[in-house]
Design goal:
By secondary structure, this protein is α+β, with helices and mostly antiparallel strands. Helix 4 packs antiparallel against helix 5 (179-197). The chain is built from five helices and nine strands. The protein has a nine-stranded antiparallel sheet with strand order 2-3-4-5-1-6-7-8-9.
């Protein structure tokens, strides 16, 4: 069996919340990898992983309540490489990973923690070993299903229409001069509802 020389994370991207970031750090400590966490003044976190060949620094930039890490690094330590593979899966990472062997390289493409394709590179030749099109299609279908913007707009328009109808009933009794402006707004709302519901 070929001996892996190194693992090159040509691109690795994670996005996590505070609790998941703590779990990320715990994953490495549980794998007996030395980890340091530095908290920056702006709230960013630097996670420093140490192995026999040096250290790898992962910068997690804080954006609102989430942290994102977009980086690249070379791992020579097999134990750290295995821990990083587990992290990629557990934290639904995106990445392009080169597993380098003597004479060839295996290139893994990750999407939400799952391997979606594998290529073997030997010299100038590239051979596709594996491609998971079903995961890509599943992600597209999930995104389409989650697009409920029209339903939300319809619900919002119905609620606004109810408020304008209540206002119209009030205006009929107390301020009839406001009725034309209210009716114009109700016509606009009913047109938009018709467009969305067709």
């Amino acid at each position: 069996m070929a001996q892996r020389l190194a693992t090159n994370y040509a691109k690795a991207y994670f996005t996590v919340n505070e609790e998941e970031l703590n779990q990320f750090v715990s994953l490495f400590t549980n794998e007996h990898i030395s980890v340091q966490v530095k908290v920056c003044d702006n709230g960013d976190r630097d996670v420093i992983l140490n192995d026999n060949n040096g250290e790898i620094q992962l910068n997690f930039c804080r954006v609102g309540s989430r942290y994102s890490c977009d980086s690249s690094y070379l791992i020579r330590d097999r134990q750290l490489a295995n821990a990083m593979r587990k992290a990629m899966k557990a934290f639904r990472g995106y990445g392009i990973v080169h597993r380098i062997y003597d004479g060839f390289t295996m290139v893994y493409h990750y999407d939400q923690g799952s391997v979606v394709s594998i290529q073997e590179l030997t010299g100038d030749e590239e051979v596709s070993i594996f491609e998971n099109n079903s995961l890509h299609m599943l992600n597209e279908l999930e995104a389409l299903f989650q697009q409920d913007g029209s339903e939300q707009e319809i619900e919002s328009l119905r609620q606004e229409t109810d408020r304008w109808l209540d206002l119209r009933n009030w205006a009929k009794r107390t301020a009839p001069e406001k009725l034309p402006a209210i009716d114009v707004r109700l016509v606009t709302l009913s047109r938009r509802l018709f467009e969305l519901e067709v």
